[in-house]
Amino acid sequence: MTNDPYKAMTIAYNHLNLPRLFTWTGGSFNGNSVEILYNAAGTKLRKTVKTGATVNYTQDYIGGIEYRDNVREAIYTAEGRVFYTSPTTTRYEYNIKDHLGNTRLTFSDKSGNGTIEVTNTASNEILQENHYYPFGLNHEGPWMNDAARDNKYQYNGKEWNDDFGLNWYNYGKRWYDQAIGRFPTVDPIASDFAFVTPYNYAENEPVANIDLWGLQKVSSSILNKASNTLKGVNEGLQQRYGFEPVRGDTKFGIRDNEAGRISTRTGKPVGEWLIRADQPHKGANYEHINVNPNLTGQKDPHTPIPGGSKTLNALESTGKTLDAVGKIAKPAAIAIDAVRIADAIHEDGGQIGDKTIETSASVAGGWAGAFAGAAVGSKAGSFIGGGIGAFFFGAGAVPGAGIGGFIGGLVGGVAGAMGGSAAAESAAKQITQPEEKK
């Protein structure tokens, strides 16, 4: 689309087929414009809004930080934003989202008393309330709105651009017009989806799906899978054989959490490294595997790593990823579960109904499955790894058991979470949706 006669607006695009200039050629906005600046990859850097030749404001985007007219306006996070009510005063705003990532409610503890006031109009702390038609158009109504400046990240968590009645969402690879439920430009990967129009949004299934960056639909059920994967990783990393942090010459390692000295505080072992992948250092000027002689009972072989630095770099990246995921796995899984249960209560009309029971069972089953799966996987992997450990870099049975236990714990945890969640939800449905007797 290069011209929208209903808005008296023309659109010019850049080489990535992203809109770079919106110009109004008639009506009350005649002569106004919105100019968008991107980097070479298509990431939006600046928006300049003009009335005629006069600049109304500029909005700069630097990662999750935004500046309005060169003054820091907000820092955006997964939970909401830190909004600058003045250059030196901030307010923490939090979002409640539904199963599609749509921002439904924004609130802030403006009084600082630890509670959110929703009943008293004068001291109400609900900043913004949004309700949407299936394809993203905002409902009009007497909704709560008390924000100093509205949070524009609304439908699917994408930025809504409403200047001069534009009302388009920026999805990253394309912009989206929620009023017609279509993208105004062709899907960059349309050749992979010949069965639908290249302008479609989420293959015309907006209730259960979102459109990933304006490229393809993604089912909301991915929340369930993401939650269970995080639960599995969380439990897997808490088994006997865990991750040894990257430090010094060590780029990857496995730790025996049941070894080492006894803590005077907990009365339990503090753990000790079992096997490490080290970069070259004094005494071993090549990439190599170390094993702990205190645990294996054998001399450290300093076994060369096949592939040298390339393999070591890959192991280091894996270690850093596991370390980062391990730190956020549990809180992230809990947050996703909270969204799933809240959405189920909403579907049940604000009460505990069938959907809430089924979703709660799925959540509980995921946690139980993750715990059991990680435990079983760790023990089974340790047994198998110990049996073949003598052939792993010449490390021996004890390090082999550690490697097998570590991998088995992760795989078993994720598989157990998936299976436990599905089984529990299925059992709940047998209660909430019994088959009719013939």
Description:
- The chain is α+β, with helices and mostly antiparallel strands and 438 residues long.
- It folds into two domains: 3-218, no CATH class; 226-432, no CATH class.
- It has helices at residues 222-236, 293-296, 308-347, 354-388, 397-432; strands at 3-4, 9-13, 19-24, 33-38, 44-51, 54-62, 65-68, 71-76, 80-86, 89-97, 103-107, 126-129, 159-161, 168-170, 175-177, 209-212, 216-219, 241-243, 250-256, 272-278, 288-291, 303-304.
- It has a twelve-stranded antiparallel beta sheet with strand order 1-2-3-4-5-6-7-8-9-10-11-12, with no helix packed on it.
- The longest helix has 40 residues, at 308-347.
- It is globular, with a radius of gyration of 27 Å.
- The model has no long low-confidence stretch (mean pLDDT 79).
* Helical residues, percent: 25-40%
Query: What number is the mean pLDDT?
Result: 79
**Which radius of gyration do the C-alpha atoms yield?**
27 Å
Beta content comes to: 25-35%
Quaternary structure of the protein: single chain
* Overall number of domains: 2
Strand order of the largest sheet: 1-2-3-4-5-6-7-8-9-10-11-12
What is the number of helices?
5
Terminal Cα separation, in Å?
57 Å
Topology pattern, helix = H, strand = E: EEEEEEEEEEEEEEEEEHEEEEHEHHH
Task: List its traits.
22 strands; alpha+beta; 2 domains; 25% strand; 5 helices; twelve-stranded antiparallel β-sheet; 438 residues
